[in-house]
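Hey,
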Amino acid sequence: MSAAAVSDSVRLAATGCITPLGDATATAAALVGGVRALQPTPVLGRAGGEAVPLALLPGRALDETNPPAWVPVLRALLAPVADRPWGTARFPVAIASSNFGVGSLYAFRRYGEDGSADHGTPHGSTDLVRRELGWGPALAVFSHACVSAHLALAHASRLVLAGAADEVLVLAYDFLSPFVAGGFHALKILNAQFPAPYQARATGSIGLGDGAAYAVVTRGRGDLAVAAQSLHNELHHFTANRADGSGFATVLAPLAPAVAGRKLWLKGHGTGTLEAGQLEAAALAQAFPGAPLVGWKGSLGHTLGSCGLVELAVAAAALRAGTTPGTVGSEAPTLAPNVALAPFANAGFDGVLCTSNAFGGAHAALLLSHV
């Protein structure tokens, strides 16, 4: 099952994100400097457990508070675009997440935190955001694991291209909790080992991180265009990709008309797992020979359903700054010869191809280019 769109009319009027390293500009600069946000943290928060690599926002504990500690974070993040009548017919909102308020639900079930259950569900979490930020009811919610943000961006793009909206606010947020960290720990891909995206080593592992981001999608205004987008779902398995890697190649194929003649760098998904990393790196190297490939989850951790928008905001900041961060946390040998371990100047590039991949063979890719 696939969907694709090619149009350089979709523009980003504004973008921003918050990570443990700061806003998009600060995060890009820290990544250029090789800063690693991940820190060893008890996997179950105040209940203890193995120390695993997590990247939490400064001052935020893994165990959720009531009201959630991330509410003022989102309010501050969105302050630069708070002047629009979001949630109205011509200014709708698209929210993406894979966690929503599950940290609150966990706190309620484990510790009996009064009131936490009210915003522990996807509806409760997004309704809390809507009420706290004073939005109207025109809001769509997307959740499909690690490609969630790409789905919301695709929806927003369709609305503005169809003339059904003047601007669409896309918001993605995922904040860690013992429930989320414990789940990945049970799968044994989150452990004491730090992630090394695209590095050829004996065993793979991931890190997890807090993250939130936004983009204002419109037509004809903004210095960066979302020139093409592609989505593909293998519908193959609950968690695994097809062993031949065909899903990674399939999502890239529809972008060929948009990338023809352009010099690109690649921002990959690169969580640090070996099998998916090998399949992704091989597909990108074949589709874009010689294009440098970077991944930032070795520093930021995997921000889950929000990663597509968080890393898009960082990529936009890198394009504007003229320097692309390298693949922090990794070293040679790598899974493909085009993996860029060190930062590089990007002034000679036309744009960046950003990819995300999710459980069960869901894939997403988009082309972000200068106007």
